[in-house]
Design brief:
Radius of gyration: 22 Å
Strand order of the largest sheet: 3-4-5-6-9-10
Order of helices and strands: EHEHEEEHHHEHEEEHHHEHHEHHEHEHH
Keywords: Kinase, Transferase
Largest sheet: 6 strands, mixed
Strand content: 15-25%
Family: Belongs to the glycerate kinase type-1 family.
InterPro entries: Glyc_kinase_flavodox-like_fold (IPR018193), Glycerate_kinase (IPR004381), Glycerate_kinase_RE-like (IPR018197), Glycerate_kinase_sf (IPR036129)
Number of helices: 16
Structural class: alpha/beta
Number of strands: 13
GO molecular function: kinase activity
Shape: elongated
Distance between the termini: 12 Å
Protein name: Glycerate kinase
Oligomer: single chain
Length: 381
């Protein structure tokens, strides 16, 4: 069989490349052909994925989420730049606390966009996900030339809490070179309210109930002032709440074109062409859950493979959804074969999976290889 591997990282344990290597060794020994792609959906790992498929890597020193400098990587192919927000403003760059939830800024993301414009790029793909921020994109806008001022005419402090002091917004200084921005995301949350950026994603970034309430109120103060200055409404648009409200700033102020994160990145890395040559697909991530069913990363892979009627195998640390639920992704008539779901926690206790993930995944890879039909002769590709 020709197998296409498209796995996301198992965050905190194994990278996408490590997972592909462990799976490939067992599958190739069993005589199968293997093609491996690094999977991403606009969040963590996006730059690694696109630079493995023809984009060149570039670095810039920018402002991290708490104001200290960080070296961030972006990618380029001809005049197109790919920006991974997590590189500049990611939650991986800090230890989340209630204080960081209030203070984290997206300023570095704006600086990274500027670096791409300075290099001559005319199209910018902004992948959001894994952010530390809930500032409505205020930091990003400021880095691109916007002025967000207090009643005294001073710049508002960084972070979502700084927006509590916002009085006026001046967008006249925005960088005029940013004319083709694509926003890659896979959520439909509005900016504010019970499904908004603070309420849904704030707790993941260290915010407790008090901080969530403050951040939501600050974003509600921010939105109408920005919309008045921009002459466009965006707070209720699907995706405005993405990445702590960066979606709002990108869609409502920067004129971003929304694109489905997982599908768009899959196109960039040549996934669909590779899928045409495959007999079966293996995908996965550390935790398979409801977000997978919503089309993020592995979910998009399962849907695309299901539409082609291919056999689909899911590898993960653990799963909160069933194989039957995963099988519904991309199901048509006739339906594709039922998804085979393999969890590392079926082979070892969770503590062992976390302490020695490579050893457990190696055993899981042997199990998968043993279950697949044996080809007549081994091949590599």
């Amino acid at each position: 069989m020709h197998l296409l591997l498209a796995c996301d990282s198992f965050k905190g344990t194994l990278s996408s490349a490590q997972i592909a290597a462990l799976l490939s060794r067992a599958l190739i020994r069993a005589g199968h052909t293997v093609t491996a792609l690094k999977l991403a959906d606009g969040g963590d790992g996006t730059i690694e994925a696109v630079t493995s498929c023809g984009f060149s890597a570039h670095t810039a020193v920018v402002t991290g989420p708490l104001g200290t400098p960080v070296e961030a990587t972006w990618a380029r192919h001809e005049s197109t730049a790919v920006i991974e927000m997590a590189q500049a403003s990611g939650i991986n760059l800090l230890d989340p606390t209630p204080e960081t939830a209030l203070q984290a800024t997206s300023f570095g993301t704006g600086e990274l966009i500027t670096a791409a414009l300075d290099a001559g790029c005319t199209t910018v793909i902004l992948g959001v996900g894994g952010s530390a921020t809930t500032d409505g994109g205020a930091g990003m806008l400021t880095a691109l030339g916007a002025r967000l001022l207090t009643a005294d005419g001073a710049p508002v402090p960084p972070g979502g809490a700084g927006l509590e002091q916002l009085k006026s917004v001046d967008l006249s200084g925005l960088d005029p070179r940013l004319t083709d921005l694509r926003l890659a995301f896979d959520v439909d949350n509005p900016l504010c309210g019970p499904r908004g950026a603070a309420a849904v994603y704030g707790p993941q970034k260290g915010a407790g109930p008090t901080e969530v309430a403050r951040l939501d109120a600050a974003l509600a103060r921010f939105a109408p002032r920005v919309e008045q200055a921009a002459g466009a409404s965006a707070a209720e648009r699907p995706g405005a709440g993405a990445a702590g409200g960066v979606g709002f700033a990108a869609l409502g102020v920067l004129g971003a074109q929304p694109v489905p994160g997982a599908d768009y990145i899959l196109d960039l890395i040549g996934f669909h062409a590779a899928l045409d040559r495959a007999d079966a697909v293996i995908t996965g991530e550390g935790r398979i859950d409801e977000q997978t069913l919503s089309g993020k990363g592995p979910g998009a892979v399962l849907a695309a493979a299901g539409e082609r009627g291919l056999e689909r195998i899911v590898v993960c640390g653990s799963a909160a959804v069933s194989a039957s639920q995963l099988s519904e992704l991309g199901a048509g008539s006739p339906p594709p074969p039922r998804v085979r779901l393999h969890q590392m926690t079926d082979l070892a206790p969770l503590d062992d999976c976390l302490a020695e993930p490579a050893a457990v995944l190696r055993r899981l890879a042997e199990q998968i290889a043993a279950e697949l039909p044996s080809p007549e002769a081994p091949q590599t590709r």
